[in-house]
Write a structure and sequence with these properties.
By secondary structure, this protein is of the alpha+beta class. It has 4 domains: about 110 residues, Hepatocyte Growth Factor (3-Layer(bba) Sandwich); about 55 residues, no CATH class; about 80 residues, Hepatocyte Growth Factor (3-Layer(bba) Sandwich); about 50 residues, no CATH class. Helices cover about 15% and strands about 35% of the residues. Strands 3-2-4-1-5 form a 5-stranded mixed β-sheet, with helices on both faces. It has a 5-stranded antiparallel β-sheet with strand order 10-14-12-13-11, with helices on one face. A hairpin with a 3-residue loop joins strand 15 and strand 16. The longest helix is centred in the first third of the chain and has 21 residues. It starts with a helix and ends in a 16-residue tail after the last strand. This is Apple domain-containing protein.
């Protein structure tokens, strides 16, 4: 009985989905990226971008999006990062594939057309990134009072004026009806402001979204910081000055997304830490205000075991203070005298 009811719901949901897109102004047709759903059996005739057997490191994300956008029958597509190919469908396959207990797939990403009115002049190729089965802990800025569809939840986030809505939590009401659920808006996002890049030598990030040729490190980094089509979370430099931009990172996909590759270097945006440094004639004081449950060490490089040169965190929101004597040179601090005239 449950299976029959589920099939009826699927048919109705996909019919409503198609109707929304049919009546949607072209300027409001956006994409939603969905991470973690496994692929299905594919029809080779549904290929969005022609395969190039001689090119093993192609980046086809933008081309797949453009081809689906131009194809009115294309309602969703799946992108395989490992083989650089994508296949389109005439319905929202992610809804059909949203079964409980389904294993997460890290080799593919789904893109679904949605009808959303966006007034902020956003030039992104996809407006929302959805991670099924995951949630952002805390930061529930505004819980909406009634059940609604996922697209309505997203539209409420875009329409919010009391605060800058950066993410939503959508929890389905019941297993029998996964088309509606509870919506919570948040002013937080998994991406924090970044201050620098973490560098990983002799490794490659498996998922490639854009490839640029003949780039230095500084040029590639600049492209990552100014690129508009997606949020660039990191970049890679490969042999022959090939610059690869990534819309994902290890925080989203986990460390297994990195593979060994001689001569390649991966740079990932690193979050800002709330650290201040102050000095007097006798002491240097370093203060760190953790945002998580921090019980690690704050120490001077090369002196992690010297009790005079480190301090241990005491938990979340507890200020960590490391006070170092400047006159003893015990923690590797070297006095630099200014030149005299």
């Amino acid at each position: 009985m449950f299976r029959v009811l589920w099939a009826i719901l699927l048919i109705k949901a996909n019919a409503a989905f198609a109707a929304r897109l049919l009546n949607c102004p072209k300027s409001n047709i956006k994409f939603e990226k969905i991470i973690g759903l496994p692929p299905i059996n594919l029809n080779r005739e549904q290929l969005l971008v022609p395969l190039n057997q001689n090119e093993t490191d192609a980046a086809v994300t933008i081309q797949c999006l453009q081809n689906c956008q131009k194809n009115e029958k294309c309602q969703s597509f799946v992108l395989f990062y490992d083989t650089s190919d994508c296949y389109w469908f005439e319905n929202d396959q992610t809804f059909i594939r949203n079964e409980s207990g389904m294993e997460v797939d890290n080799a593919a990403a789904w893109f679904v057309k949605v009808c959303l009115q966006e007034e902020r002049g956003c030039n992104k190729s996809w407006v929302f990134e959805t991670v099924r089965g995951a949630t952002l802990i805390g930061n529930d800025t505004k819980a909406l009072p009634r059940n609604m569809s996922r697209s309505e939840c997203q539209q409420n986030c875009l329409d919010e004026t009391d605060f800058d809505c950066r993410s939503v939590k959508f929890r389905v009401s019941s297993a029998q009806n996964e088309t509606v659920g509870l919506c919570t808006l948040s002013n937080k996002h998994q991406d924090n402001e970044y201050c620098t890049y973490e560098e990983y030598g002799d490794v490659a990030f498996k998922h490639k979204d854009l490839r640029l040729l003949n780039m230095t490190k500084d040029q590639c980094q600049h492209q990552c910081e100014v690129y508009q089509a997606f949020n660039c979370r990191g970049f890679s430099l490969d042999s022959g000055k090939k610059c690869i931009l990534h819309s994902e990172d290890t925080k989203l996909r986990g460390p297994r997304i990195l593979v060994s590759k001689q001569g390649a270097t991966y740079y990932e945006k690193a979050r800002c830490l709330n650290i201040t440094v102050s000095c007097t004639e006798s002491y240097m004081t370093i203060r760190y205000q953790p945002e998580t449950n921090f019980h690690g060490k704050l120490y001077m490089h090369g002196n992690s075991e010297n009790k005079e040169c480190f301090v241990v965190g005491q938990g979340k929101f507890t200020m960590v203070t490391l006070k170092l004597q400047l006159l003893t040179n015990e923690c590797g601090i070297v006095k630099a005298d200014s030149p005299t005239s």
